[in-house]
Design brief:
The chain has 15 helices and 16 strands. It has helices spanning 33-40, 63-66, 101-113, 122-143, 158-170, 188-204, 240-245, 257-264, 323-330, 355-359, 367-372, 379-384, 399-411, 427-439, 457-471, and strands spanning 23-26, 67-70, 176-180, 208-213, 225-230, 233-234, 238-239, 283-294, 297-308, 312-317, 341-344, 347-348, 362-365, 445-449, 477-481, 494-498. The strands form three sheets. Strands 1, 2, 3, 4, 5, 6 and 7 form a seven-stranded mixed sheet that branches. Strands 13-14-15-10-16 form a five-stranded parallel sheet, sandwiched between helices.
Length: 501
């Protein structure tokens, strides 16, 4: 049990993980999974017994060398301090000293290689270097990272960033690796390749893999044991078969009927009076032969796309295909939109409209947005920022605005978190706050980029039902990005598949 009461589990933890086991720590959002990981990694000093490790036969002695943890919280690490929301699209603002993917990986590999000779014979050290070099090349090929080596680290997409972090960690030769929701943000092919890679590493080495999962339906086959966590309590470790036997396959509606009626019954806006909005049933957006390049890299090439009012689009494609770049053009965050033929709400981009005229009709959430919210303000202030389309500038909501914010937080089941500060919430609770932010101004165009990242099954179902209820109303249009077909709400009417250039 940790010494600080704010980071304690509700009960003392008694747990052992044996050599040869492959473990998944599973639980709902805010169940206490991250707290258990902090105990396992020695992040906080404990009151009585310390965690005991046996990393044999690894010759490395330090816990930090043998045990690695990847949190996958959409972080740029050391680059966070200089990062702002639109910087990925404003690449002329990126300092030349900002490291590239290749530079950071070379530094990480050199540092890891320097420790190989400790406690090994020359032949053993040479064999280990050869093994790591082969693994590095294999990871590059699987994740197609050779095409990203010259890319700035803060310009990576959410999925590309996860690939970078995985390669950096796996080639360091850890004895134990803890991975927090490693498959979110990865396209289907990459998820399969990562699973196969981990299975090979487990088979050929003595690495212990501990997965931290919110989605219990997505456990890879190599997991042998499950540690359930709920109500900040660690349950008894059980075999995978025992755990799955206790799961229910029945998917039931979870959005309360009064909440559904409240969403559907919200006042209908008189968009006919809006000067910056098309006629009813008209085009919400149109891309005409749009091409986006960054240096020698082409992200979108000759894209033609039109979305009419009331349509609900699923936007898909492999990592790096340009999905988030496309959405940045729609949301007026990307300056290259001025050089392209893009029409938003019936107006050609760059013909005198302001960014705020565009944004007032759009509700938006994305991994980039999650990454940009780094101030520890009350959660309700984060939700209220959606009323002003601001990221980084916060205004205390007026009483009537606070009532609207609380109503949407109630819809997503987080009203009780209104006055808790954002950075003290779990990653899943943070995502629910940002989803409430996207809905709070009742937008005509709802853009959801990977909205279910890190959510447990209950909240995935809840969010889908909220989206479906919202889209039943007049003048509502949806564009949603996900790598999981099963995450899409049933109201989807159209699909756009982007292919990587």
């Amino acid at each position: 049990m940790t010494r600080h009461p704010d980071w304690r589990m509700a009960e003392p933890v008694n747990l052992s993980i044996e050599d040869g086991e492959q473990v998944a720590i599973v639980g709902d959002n805010a169940a206490g999974k991250s707290r258990l990981v902090e105990i396992l990694t020695g992040h906080y000093p404990l009151l009585m017994n310390e965690v005991k490790y046996d990393f044999s036969p690894s010759p490395l002695r330090l816990v930090s060398e043998n045990l690695r943890y990847i949190s996958f919280r959409d972080s740029y690490g050391d680059s966070d301090g200089a990062y702002y929301y639109q910087q990925r699209w404003n690449q002329h603002d990126i300092d030349e000293s900002t490291p590239t993917v290749g530079q950071l990986l070379d530094e990480a590999f050199a540092k890891a290689d320097a420790t190989i000779g400790m406690g090994l014979t020359q032949a053993e050290a040479d064999a280990e270097r050869e093994r790591r070099h082969a693994l590095r090349q294999r990871l590059y090929a699987i994740f197609r990272l050779d095409t990203l080596l010259d890319k700035y680290i803060i310009a990576l997409s959410s999925g590309e960033l996860r690939k970078f972090q995985l390669i950096k960690t796996l080639t360091g030769g850890p004895r134990v690796i803890i991975m927090d929701n490693p498959f979110i943000g990865l396209d289907a092919a990459t998820r399969l390749q990562l699973t196969e890679l981990l299975e090979t590493l487990i088979r050929e080495t003595r690495i212990l893999v501990i997965l931290v999962m919110s989605r219990v339906d997505a456990l890879p086959h190599f997991v042998s044991h499950v540690i359930p966590v709920s109500d900040v309590k660690v349950g008894r470790k059980v075999t995978r078969e025992v755990y799955e036997a206790g799961l229910s396959d029945v998917e039931k509606p979870v959005l309360a009927s009064e909440m559904r009626r409240w969403i559907v019954g919200l006042p209908v806006k008189d968009v006919a009076k809006e000067s910056f909005y098309p006629q009813e049933g008209g085009e919400i957006l149109r891309f005409c032969d749009v091409t986006i390049r960054y240096g020698r890299r082409t992200i979108l090439s000759g894209l033609n796309w039109a979305v009419r009012e009331g349509e609900r689009w699923a936007l898909s494609g492999e990592n790096g295909a340009g999905k988030s770049t496309l959405l940045s053009l729609v949301c007026a965050d990307n300056p290259q939109s001025y050089a392209c033929h893009i029409e938003l709400f019936g107006h050609r981009r760059g013909t005198g409209e302001s960014i705020w005229q565009i944004k007032r009709h759009i509700g938006y959430v994305s991994p980039e947005m999650h990454r940009a919210y780094q101030k520890d303000l009350p959660a309700i202030d984060i939700v209220a920022s959606g009323l002003h389309d601001s990221v980084g500038l916060y205004v205390r909501p007026r009483p009537e605005q606070r009532a609207v914010c609380l109503a949407w937080m109630r819809v997503f089941g987080i009203e009780h978190l209104a006055d808790r500060t954002f950075l003290r919430l779990s990653s899943g609770e943070q995502r629910l706050c940002l989803l409430a932010r996207a809905f709070v101004k009742d937008p005509e165009l709802l853009i959801l980029d990977e909205p279910l990242h890190g959510l447990d099954l209950y909240h995935c179902q809840l969010v889908r039902e909220v989206i479906e209820a919202f889209c039943r109303r007049p003048h509502k249009t949806l564009v949603m990005v996900t790598h999981y077909k099963e995450e899409l709400p049933s109201c989807i009417t159209h699909e756009l598949l982007l292919k990587r250039n």
